[in-house]
Specification:
The protein has 14 helices and ten strands. It is of the alpha/beta class and 341 residues long. It has one domain: Rossmann fold (3-Layer(aba) Sandwich). Strands 1, 2, 3, 4, 5, 6, 7, 8, 9 and 10 form a ten-stranded mixed sheet that branches. Helix 2 (87-93) links the parallel strand 4 (70-74) and strand 5. It is globular, with a radius of gyration of 18 Å. It starts with a helix and ends with a helix. It comes from Roseateles chitinivorans.
């Protein structure tokens, strides 16, 4: 199966289920952003709304029936909410309420206070997700993600299992173990993390800031070598990397992973709790593409982390790291299937 076949499968399924949606507004503090819609010509994916949640004013997409089963979908780096621009309308057409937020440092999401530490450690991002659920009045949801977003979904599921109905994670159980931060990998494995060590230097921070979009495009090609995305697709996402806190947060995320940056003390209790969680029990589907050029563990390495009903799906046809955008029908089907377990 080729990447084009995955896209045709999506279009066929969308046509069969009727992907045209009537978007209903939100009440309370949620308002449409003053910026342009999330994707011009993609009316089923938008508009971007704003709501105060925890330390942030969050930009997010919210489509589908208000009484539908909630699905929280999280993007990664250097991607954005458009990773789900085809997945979200498909799920909404099946009766799910789909929420796709800009993570801190992306798009229209902003900190409410200049005094807040610009931390992108795993528990900060997870706490943001729970705060958004609280702000939207969502008690329980299906969590899904890819890259940073998969880690976010896994950390949320580990720390707040009562809030997670089911889990869909690309590349498995991606919770970081801080006790291994200084444990070196093999030379070949270290090489695949070159950007992490680049960001650990001041030269790397300056270089990312100076060459932001070129850097992101390079990572897209490296992580998904067989994905033939066009300029318009890249430009939609790259525009959301232009955020006043983006560079600082990306650099902090990667530095903190290897003990090269201080973390935010307010999240230390969550980090301590997280270190004690070795497994999750909610229904889970993990996915992996056959052309993932980014560092990722083999499926066998994380199988034991999932003690509930579980399935791993290996996709073929040149599917890379940004799986929800490269194989939207497969990702959406995983959400639909796990919701029925």
């Amino acid at each position: 199966m080729t990447a084009d076949t995955h896209r045709r499968d999506f279009l066929s399924l969308a046509a069969a289920t009727g992907a045209g949606l009537a978007l209903s507004g939100l009440t309370g503090r949620a308002t449409a952003a003053t910026s342009a819609p999330a994707a011009v010509g993609r009316a089923a994916f938008g508009p971007v709304r704003q709501i105060d949640a925890g330390p942030l004013n969050v930009g997010y997409i919210d489509i589908g029936p208000r009484n539908g089963t909630p699905v929280m979908l999280f993007h990664g780096w250097p991607y954005d909410i458009h990773g789900y621009e085809e997945v979200a309308p498909m799920l909404a057409s099946q009766g799910f309420r789909v929420i796709v937020p800009h993570l801190r440092g992306y798009g229209t999401t902003r900190f409410l206070s200049d005094a807040t530490m610009r931390s992108a450690q795993q528990t900060a991002l997870a706490a943001d997700g729970i705060a958004l659920m609280d702000a939207l009045g969502i008690r329980k949801a299906i969590f899904g993600g890819c890259d940073w977003g998969a880690r976010n979904a896994c950390v949320m599921a580990a720390l707040w299992p009562e809030r997670c109905q089911a889990l869909v994670s690309v590349s498995g159980f991606l919770v970081l173990d801080r006790t291994t931060a200084l444990t070196p990998l093999s030379p070949a494995d270290e090489f695949t993390w070159w950007y992490q060590y680049y960001f650990a230097t001041e030269r790397g921070r300056i270089g990312y800031e100076k060459n932001l979009k070129a850097f992101a495009r390079f990572i897209w090609h490296q992580a998904s070598p067989k994905w033939n995305f066009d300029d318009a697709t890249f430009d939609r996402s790259a525009a959301n990397l232009v955020n006043p806190d983006h560079v600082a947060l990306v650099v902090h995320n990667y530095r903190s992973r290897i003990g090269a940056a201080e973390t935010d003390p307010q999240y230390e209790p969550l980090e301590t709790r997280l270190a004690q969680v070795k497994t999750v029990a909610m229904p889970t589907i993990t996915l992996e593409g056959d052309a993932n050029g980014a560092p990722h563990p083999p499926a066998a390495a994380y199988r034991s982390r999932f003690t509930g009903k579980y399935e791993h799906r290996a996709l073929t046809g040149g599917i890379g790291h940004n799986l929800p955008q490269e194989a939207p029908a497969d990702f959406a089907k995983a959400v639909i299937d796990v919701a029925q377990w």
